[in-house]
Specification:
Helix content is about 45%, strand content about 15%. The chain is of the alpha/beta class. The chain folds into two domains: about 150 residues, Orthogonal Bundle (N-utilizing Substance Protein B Homolog, Chain A); about 200 residues, Rossmann fold (3-Layer(aba) Sandwich). It is globular. The chain starts with 8 loop residues before the first helix and ends with a strand.
Length: about 450
């Protein structure tokens, strides 16, 4: 998190650098690049601060773009100057009551450091006056400008209009709550690895380290405040993994038992793979189209102590392959259970990845839905008679959820739909019992016979 209000001179200089790094992150996202990829290239000394500013900017980008459009109707020809303006405006926007994760700087510091940032780079120097005039203009006309901003859909909800329109049509009674929750920073939730520790053991270790945490769900722990994983007891020992409470529902639905043959399709980064192996001794295949991401799956399983010993008779295979083309990787033996956590728009996890809303386009929903159909249909013949297939997406759009599940059942006469959570909507801190989770869809099918 960046410096608090009233930073000293060293923090003021750091803010100038953070503004430049965050401006580049915003520029990259608007050009179609993932924020995760951009942040990985930020120098280590600036990464935490840049992430805090960039995430905040993504959550308020609609407002900032609306303000910029009112003050500077033409987009600056230099995309980095646009990024600097947007990040700086986000830091000057009024903060809603009770908002969390807000980088706090005095307005005069923001203006001063933004102007200095522009002056420090040859490509930005010509826009120094524009940055100064725009930011000071906002401070002067702040109330009247914000009154106009909230009348714009993107400015009011900080999501693209097509996204808002889809949610309004799908959830006429609570679309506003979904959008509000999406703009709140998510909690940090862990799943305890039952093979290495108990939840009571983890909670006691956290209490001893004066880290606030409480139980969440069947085997989860929710922190009072997020922290780097390496600062938490038990990380290296494999006591737990970071996993949203909603995602922790997946593995138990398959009711795996020792000796079962299981496929985790689209497995990376491996959270659900690990959960399955924590629950039973399985012959498991983790499949993913990206061989590099499979390396991360292997590293996670090794840290958690879930890779079987050679003498155990069990196998955990990491296979790079296309889930729509089983002939390229399947050995012909049916699986007792298949987890199909299929690619989707990720519209249910935008509070955790706030850049997603700006990266997606309206026609992406149809494209991902078509791919989901191909994957589900290709995997169904691989399920043994009496076996199960769990269809999962981290989406809130019905085209990727209930419509997909209903169409699958209609296409496959031998698919028996079993009880499952269905559509989970993202919920904020006001949820009953404090169990917060992202947006997911679950549909469970058994193969007749």
């Amino acid at each position: 998190m960046p410096a608090p209000a009233s930073p000293d001179s060293r923090n003021a200089v750091a803010l100038q650098e953070l503004l430049l790094e965050s401006a580049e992150a915003v520029r990259a996202v608007l050009a179609g690049q993932s924020l995760t990829e951009v942040l990985a290239q930020v120098p280590a000394a600036y990464r935490a601060g840049t992430q805090a500013l960039s995430f905040y900017a993504m959550r308020r980008l609609g407002e900032a773009r609306a303000v910029r459009g009112l003050l500077v109707p033409r987009t600056p020809p230099e995309p980095l100057a646009e990024g600097l303006l947007l990040v700086s405006l986000c830091l000057l926007l009024p903060v809603p009551a009770g908002a969390a994760g807000v980088p706090a700087y005095p307005p005069h510091t923001v203006v001063d450091q933004a102007v200095r940032a522009a002056a420090s780079m040859t490509r930005l120097a010509p826009f120094k006056g524009l940055v100064n005039g725009c930011l000071r203009g906002f401070l002067r006309e702040h109330d009247s400008l914000m009154a106009r901003v909230v009348k714009q859909v993107e400015g009011r909800w900080n999501h693209p209009q097509w996204w808002v329109d889809r949610l309004r049509a799908a959830y006429p009674d609570n679309w506003q709550d979904i959008l509000t929750a999406a703009n709140e920073p998510p909690p940090m939730t862990l799943r305890v690895n039952a093979r290495r520790a108990s939840r009571e053991q983890v909670l006691q270790a956290f209490a001893d380290a004066r880290i606030g945490a409480r139980p969440a769900g069947a085997s989860g722990v929710m922190l009072d405040a997020p922290r780097p994983v390496t600062q938490l007891p038990g990380f290296e020992a494999g006591w737990w993994s970071v996993q949203d409470a909603g995602a922790q529902l997946a593995a138990p639905l398959l009711e795996v038992r020792d000796g079962m043959r299981v496929l985790d399709a689209c497995a990376a980064p491996g959270g659900k793979t690990a959960h399955l192996l924590e629950m039973a001794d399985l012959d498991l295949t983790a499949l993913d189209a990206d061989a590099r991401r499979l390396q991360r799956v292997g590293a996670n399983l090794e840290r958690l102590g879930l890779l079987p010993a050679p003498a155990s008779g069990r196998q955990v295979l990491l296979r790079a392959g296309d889930a729509t083309q089983p002939d390229g990787w399947w050995d012909g033996r049916p699986f007792d259970a298949i987890l199909a956590d299929v690619p989707c728009t990720a519209s249910g996890i935008v509070r955790r990845h706030p850049d997603i809303r700006w990266l997606r386009r309206a026609d992406d929903v149809g494209r991902t839905a078509a791919l989901q159909t191909r994957i589900a249909d290709a995997l169904w013949p691989l399920v043994a008679a009496g076996g199960r297939l769990l269809y999962v997406t981290c989406s809130v759009f019905p085209q990727e959820g209930e419509r997909q599940a209903a169409a699958f059942a209609a296409r496959h006469a031998d698919a028996v739909r079993l009880p499952a959570p269905g559509q989970l909507l993202p919920c904020g801190p006001a949820t009953v019992g404090g169990l917060q989770h992202d947006g997911f869809f679950y549909a469970l099918f058994a193969k007749a016979g």
